[in-house]
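Sequence only, no structure available. Ideas?
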Amino acid sequence: MKILLPLAILAAAPAFADVTTTPIAGTELDVSATGTSTRAPDIATIGAGVVTQAPKAGDAMAANAKAMTATIAALKHAGVADRDIQTQSINLQPQYRYGDNQPPVLTGYQASNRVSVRIRDLTGAGGVIDALVSAGANQIDGPTLSVEHPEAALDEARAKALATARTRAELYAKAAGLTVRRIVRISESEGSGPIVRPMAMMARAKADTTPVEAGEQELTVNLSVVFELN
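Reply:
I predicted one. Tokens follow.
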């Protein structure tokens, strides 16, 4: 006899962990459970870019290089390490003016340069953003907040998910007049993504800088656990 009880929906990705033991001789019970753990994010990632325009391609690139050099210097002056600054893209494109029933007319060139920036001191994140703008960055996106080392939090979530699965297995076994003999198989998949919730005073910027609030991040692990009941 097989009892199938999908109590939570697992992510569509392949199982991250799969522990299998010998085939069962009793009743099989499939239980799905979710475990969560929360942490305050300690990394902020932002995108910063410089866009310049000029009649000639070389002039557009030269102006862009000057502005991006100043932008990178401002990042380093704000305490961002070299390893946390990475060029994402450099582009040069012609610009045209379009008119009705007229061929396009070349008006100049647009150059752009974008970097990805990791900020490890969230209390200064707003100041870094303001420094970027002051130095010449005219494109800013983010921040993306994350936990740099999530392993401990994920282990907590795993333990919670397994405890929940075992509690549910005991409940259903008792209702069926059976007992839980052992775990046969465990399959794991991580959750679909972090849930950010407000948390006051975690990374509050000064009154004269761009405010960045860290909140808290919820890390999730989904388990599918197969029990043998007797």
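The chain has three helices and ten strands.
Hope that gets you unstuck.
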